[in-house]
Amino acid sequence: MLTAAAVMAPVPAAPKSSLEVLLETIKKRDERPKDEPPALPARPTCRGRLPRARRSPTPPRVHLEDGVAEGAAADTDKKPEAVPDTDKKPEAVNENKPEIEKENTPEVKKEIGGQEAKEGKAVNGRIFGAKRKLCSVEPVDESPYVENLHEERKDAMACKEPPSPYFSSARAKRNGKPVFTDSMDYVLQKKLRVWCSASDEKWELGQIESISGDDVEIHLVNGEVLTLPPERLLPANPDILDGVDDLIQMSYLNEPSVLYNLQYRYSRDLIYTKAGPVLIAINPLKEVPLYGKDFIRKYRQKLTNDPHVYAIADIAFNEMLRDGINQSIIISGESGAGKTETAKIAMQYLAALGGANGMESEVLQTNVILEALGNAKTSRNDNSSRFGKLTEMHFSETGKICGAKIQTFLLEKSRVVRRAPGERSYHIFYQLCSGASPLHRKKLLLRDANYYNYLKQSSCLRIDGVDDAKRFSSLLGALDIVQISGENQMELFSMLAVVLWLGNISFSVIDNENHVEVDSNEGLANAAKLLGCSVPQLVIALSTRKIQAGKENIVQRLTLTQAIDARDALAKSIYAHLFDWIVEQINHSLGTGRQRTRRSISILDIYGFESFNKNGFEQFCINYANERLQQHFNRHLFKLEQEEYLDDGIDWVSVEFVDNTDCLSLFEKKPLGLLSLLDEESTFPKATDLSFANKLKQHLSGNPGFKGEQDGAFKICHYAGEVSYDTTGFLEKNRDPLHTESIQLLFSCKSDLPKDFASVMIAYSQNKSSLSCHLLVDSQKQSVVNKFKAQLFKLMQQLENTSPHFIRCIQPNNKQRPRQFEHDLVLHQLKCCGVFEVVRISRAGYPTRMTHQQFAERYGFLLSHSVASQNPLSISVAVLQQFSIPPEMYQVGYTKLFLRTGQVAALENAKNRMLHGALRIQRNFRGLHTRREYYTLKKGATALQSFVRGEKARFRFDYLFKRWRAAVLIQKYTRRRLAATMFTDQLKNIVVLQSVMRGCLARKKFKCLQEEKESKVINSKVRRDVRNNISQVRLCHEMNGEYPRQPVVTELEGRVSKAEALLRDKEEENAMLKQQLEQYENKWSEYETKMKVMEEAWKKQLSSLQLSLVAAKKSLAADDMVTRAARTDTTPTHAQYDSEDTMSTGTHTPEGTELKYQNHNPEPRLATGNSDRRINAVNHLAKEFEDRRQVFDDDAGFLVAVKSGQIGSNMNPDDELRKLKDRFATWKKDYKSRLKETKVNLQKVGSHDEKSRKRWWGKKSSK
């Protein structure tokens, strides 16, 4: 088996690197047989340090000038173009090498160590213009990092300011001669752009024109020309690097370059910039188009890589799913830097990633509720968070939100009762007064905001551009979405109204000792009513105290100050417990049905560092919390990062940073820390704020981070600078007293919520298990700082169990105006956040690190040849050498490989290419194999399908054939039944019609015969009478012997002539009547033609009916012989029907009619009347025909209009057409019958006239 030295054999000509030296050391120390894999290097004897025998005296490429290390920092900032130029200066580099090699390294280390060990040495702090001192680290008695507590105590570093920006570019002197560093020397020689510091200490950009001696002539951008020494110059980045999105990409990392880059991006609304692993977010103070569904989709699909809050949230989400490790997003910054909005943006993105179940909307709406109850307007920020919030979002294994939990820290209760001028109380009070409905205002007895003393005392009731009524409507919607019931909402608003009315309760002094009594006013009555207690109970709780003297209780009245404090304490306590109660309700809603998963992302939105003209107890606690968060930031980005390098034994030059361990020690040390002294002083009943300040001066005057001042004030040197605190109210706020009477008042209330508050107050007491109820409320409660410290330590422990992601929010200016960039303010925040140190560590560090085993498993298959020694270290070395990765771009530790940024890309590309090649081979092979299997399966499946489909088709055919035969059989019988029924009905109708027509004709014929008979009888009687008269006359004459005289003959002749004249008149009249009759007959022929057309249509309908009957008969004949016989029997009837129909339609000739009525002999005197009746009947029929035709034409046009939708949209055209057809058929039938009657009447009248003429002429001729 080959040894590790054999692995290095391919490059014998190259000089030995630190890796080769390390491998040789391992080989010499390894005493195992050659056939066994070599053991890994042993742990160093000193934590984080290699043994001196195996460690080079100085880091590589570091030169010593007068005991000062140079070059290391310059190498990190050196541009790539500077390398060839430095190689051309052998005089400047090679001449110094002998001197450097001759220097005694232990003396240098001793000098550097002596500098670190000195105490009290002042350094230029540049923070708030104050000077800070290096102090030895005192041990911290308590720490949230329990596991690493002892190691941190050993390795805690003194608080130091970062090196001056001039150090990397300033001119150092040796033997009285100036010597430039590599970076600045290159810039001066090439006459590149530089930053110059003028007399006003402002950095300006310029171009080097010339160099004369120790002075450099600079041409500024504005056209001015300055001459400055090189000490006041800093190199500037080239134009191509203007506005880079990651500060690591900058060639030169200095203050003016970083500020210029941030301002360049800020002016273009690019508010996010990366600083290594930290995201810098500058508050735009306006709406910017960087959010929404489109941006969420881009970052979700990895379509963009620009720095953004979405990118940080996406990284946390993916790491949580990939590694199964809980994540945290820590958002920090000063007040007004935009932390709350940044937290909401991160939550929106996570809700979009884990949505689709409705839970995400509830999580997002919690921001609306908590902002209303926990945010307020301050002098710096219109929406400042006055509490800390940790939102823990839980996800399922598939990445869906399954629940959430919210933790809150240190609500600023004092803001409820008093605040600075120009500030507001919490938003919820103003929203309730402005947006409550009339019903709510009536139930809660609400007034306008300017009516309440708690709200109007700061003379600020509105915020420009904010509609409180609209915000209240959004709050109600959020409460509904989070499933806060209407009853709980009403309780919430009732308690808020109680707090407002408590502020309107006033007191009156009743004696010389300043004792007071409560004024009976509207505030007292309304507060008691809303609380659910009586007015006397509230008066007793606010104006008296019970003092136990022996076994007796003495009631003592309060002074004015005590009464006001009691009233304010009750209001603050109610609001604080109300805030905790609503958070508990929200957590209960968000936790309903939540799965127990170990995947979560926590978003910390906590108050930022605050420094006002007057800072009190709240700022003291807030800044303490920020100190602890800064320690967490330093721990993960500075300490743990560098400790990992040192622990694994690689060459590393530690990057110094501002460590706030001494400040935390000042706060937390026992028994002489700030928090311990505050708790101790709070236990003394007669202690005052001034005595507390004096105690601090007495015990902490020797601490360099503390400075006592007059009038009860003191200063603390924080990581962000010195802050002066006023001790006024410290003890009272730390005690947070609430007396027995107030708690008993809450217990006695009828409402459930005040009782719950009182129960919670008792639960916080220390001796609740052994004391009675009355003594319990008087027992010493846990102080505010102790409670807050416990919450803070718990928070730190939670964050330690997560993988952190940091977002630093920056406030661009103090005026809260967009597009204004104050360099000093931004630079101060960057220094406080440690951005420069983060970038330096990120640039000089090794962000990619893997254990030897992981590296070998991940990239070992890339080796083009096998390695004899199969241990992970040898495989890893072989891979690095195969890909020609320079030795300075990686280091090998005892357990891990450390690679600089971008070095894994080549390995990943090669791995991807090999994997893609393997995938292509596998794809082709699997494709061939799959195609063969597919063709085989396809052939078998086709055969199987053919049999199955054939069987199915045959079965289906048989089934359908049977259904068809059954359907045909059913249709046959059904049609036969329907046809028989229809035929029977039609036959009955025809028989009835024929019977009616025949009866009518028979009656008419009978009437004519009867009239003819009567006329014959009358004629015979007349003739008989005439004959009798004549015979009597003749007999009379014969009996008398007389004969008719001549006058009688003459008279008869006259009568005959008169009759002839009358006959001629009648003949002329008959001729005229015949002409009229011919005219009428012509008209009648026209009408008859028209009616024949209508009859033809009717006949077609009858013929179609007959055809259907014949078809029915034929179908019946095909199935049943009996039916054929029946059809044969019914044929005569059908023929009779046809004949009768023909007869009924009036097809008989007029001659035949005259023959039938030839015996009719009407009276001559009736001829004129009959002629008039015929004319009227024909005219009436003609007029009716024209009228009906016009009516039916109008109806048809109306139906066309209805069908086209022009009119009658609510009418059914089909129904109207059917009704029109029915009306037409009815009228046609009636018209035909009347037409037949008219024809018969005309024929009868004509036959009567003819017969009368013949009879008259017959009588005349007979005579």
Write the layout of secondary structure elements.
Blueprint: H1 4-7, H2 18-29, E1 63-65, E2 68-70, H3 72-77, H4 82-87, H5 90-93, H6 97-102, H7 105-117, E3 122-127, E4 130-133, H8 149-155, E5 172-174, E6 177-179, H9 182-190, E7 193-197, E8 203-212, E9 215-220, E10 225-228, E11 233-235, H10 255-266, E12 272-275, E13 278-282, H11 293-300, H12 309-323, E14 327-333, H13 339-353, H14 359-374, E15 375-376, E16 384-385, E17 388-395, E18 401-409, H15 427-435, H16 438-444, H17 453-456, H18 468-481, H19 486-503, E19 507-509, E20 516-518, H20 522-531, H21 535-543, E21 544-549, E22 552-557, H22 560-590, E23 600-605, H23 617-647, H24 661-668, H25 674-682, H26 689-700, E24 706-708, E25 713-718, E26 721-726, H27 730-735, H28 740-748, H29 752-763, H30 773-778, H31 784-800, E27 803-810, H32 823-833, H33 835-844, E28 848-851, H34 852-859, H35 872-882, E29 890-892, E30 896-899, H36 903-1040, H37 1046-1119, H38 1121-1129, H39 1131-1144, H40 1150-1156, H41 1167-1204, H42 1213-1262
Parallel strand pairs: 13-27, 14-23, 14-27
Antiparallel strand pairs: 1-2, 3-4, 5-6, 7-8, 7-11, 8-9, 9-10, 12-13, 15-16, 17-18, 17-23, 19-20, 21-22, 24-25, 25-26, 28-30, 29-30
Helix pairs in contact: 12-13, 13-14, 14-15, 14-18, 14-22, 15-18, 19-20, 19-22, 20-21, 21-28, 23-24, 23-31, 25-26, 28-29, 34-35, 36-37, 36-39, 37-38, 37-41, 41-42
Coiled coil: 1049-1097
Binding site for ATP: 333-340
Biased composition (Basic and acidic residues): 27-37, 75-117
